[in-house]
Design brief:
- By secondary structure, the protein is mainly α.
- It is built from one helix and no strands.
Amino acid sequence: MERFTKNNDFFPFLTNLIFILGLIFLDFLLFNFYFRKR
């Protein structure tokens, strides 16, 4: 049970990290595209 709670505690952090990384990547991609278009 303790192991499960630890995993449950760690999972949201991982998803948050991936979400933030994806957001930054998307922002960078959009910026690059906009910069190239100009």
